[in-house]
Amino acid sequence: NRMLTWQRTSFHFQPKINWMNDPNGPLYYKGWYHFFYQYNPEGAVWGNIVWGHSVSTDLIHWRHLPIAMTYDQWYDSNGVWTGSATLLPNGDLVMLYTGSTNQTVQVQNLAYPADPSDPLLIDWVKYPKNPVLVPPPGIDIHDFRDPTTAWLTSEGKWRITIGSKINKTGISLVYETMDFKNFELLEGVLHAVPGTGMWECVDFYPVSTSGENGLDTSMKGSGVKHVVKASFDDDRNDYYSLGTYDEETAVWHPDDPKLDVGLGLRYDYGKFYASKTFFDVEKKRRVLWGWIPETDSELADIQKGWASLQAVPRTVVFDRKTGSNVLQWPVVEVEKLRTKSWQFSNVVVQPGSVLPLDVGKKTSQLDIMAEFELDQEALNRVNETDEMFSCSTAGGAANRGALGPFGLLVLADESLSEQTPIYFYVAKGAEGKLKTFFCADESRSSKATDVMKPIYGSTVPVLKGEKFSMRILVDHSIVESFAQRGRTCITSRIYPTKAIYEDAKIFLFNNATEANIIASLKIWQMDSAYIHSYPTELIM
Ligand code: DQQ
Fold it and tell me: Would residue 234 show up in a list of annotated catalytic residues for this protein?
């Protein structure tokens, strides 16, 4: 029944049925990408959490494997919660995860593959002397979770960090270990930010300031900056910050205190949470996984029998042009799904107009690359304007300013009664300084009344000589949008009821009052990925 199944996606990772949340322990091992995830095998709501498990050779096509770990010990009987993988230099693999005990105490546990020679890592053994860590003095038993991948010190010891809070200050504790069984809590914290609440799923990793390659988690020294990311339980967003890691003190300092964790940048200004990176040893890149929660009602999730997606994995690199943010970009393998393409060159879109783009029938699975130029005469002519602009102002893409909004309407029906505008908005300040916003307006994304319809967005740096550029992945009920090669990203989890399958169209629009825009686009239809179940579909 097409009404029941249309919300399923075609190239985003999701289990066949039931609830999924955080990505866990991603890694590349003996020829396979492994993806574990928080999973409820018994329903479409959070609970009974185990580790689901899938493998892939390209991060796009997946084979679901049996559940890797279930809640079968006193130290994880309330759930096998989030954790991370560490690949040791000798090839050994260790997994650390949070268990919620029979008393709902949050503890850290060690697990490892039963048969390290099995590239599929089907069977897992929990260390008999678990837990390896319990909440230290001063830390609430419910505020101690989500161990990171470990990194090496110059002395050959391993360090991990674990998110927590003290009063309202979000913190990340650092532990040192030789064997992943005995740990020592270091004095002080990796980092703390007052007022930010509990830090979930902390991630800590180096990025190269001189090259495009990703770095092993233990890399340090010159030409390296470190990212701290925390998922804020209070506002359910993933915040990151760039800075310097001091090995001596095991302390990290933000480059710019104004852009500290939670004060500045987010990975994504839409729906995107509990993310985690791993270093892909095969392709020498750092890959980011992020959980996309639902924004419909719990009842709707129960009715459809499943909940949540994962974002298409993204490579993460330091933005050497701005020097102040990372760039996120869908892994190159997703381009293998590109089929038929359409090109539009230098289309002039006049103020107040909407132009349909004919890209054939299969319009609910697209990869769109678009570039826009604002007409220079108008840019010069327009005086200071819209300095108070914010994406989230009521009205969204319907609000008209001198130099915006302009962009695309995706998952729109013929009559535009459903549409999701993804757009730029240019504000002009004193001395002619331009400030560009990148926004996604979900307020008209669905006729359904039981879904959230926020308007998302933030600023995006557009450097001298750059055009306004966006990439959009459209996949039935999710739209992932990337501005300026991934400086600002927005994931929209939306539920069109009319703009589905071949009734989903796309349009160019320009709601600016003063300026023409010139648009050039390349648009590909996307094939579906192979994401099948074990064992029925695996055994061929
Ligand atoms: N989800 C896990 C926790 C983590 C939270 C439980 C973040 O370990 O803090 O399912 O979404």
Answer: no
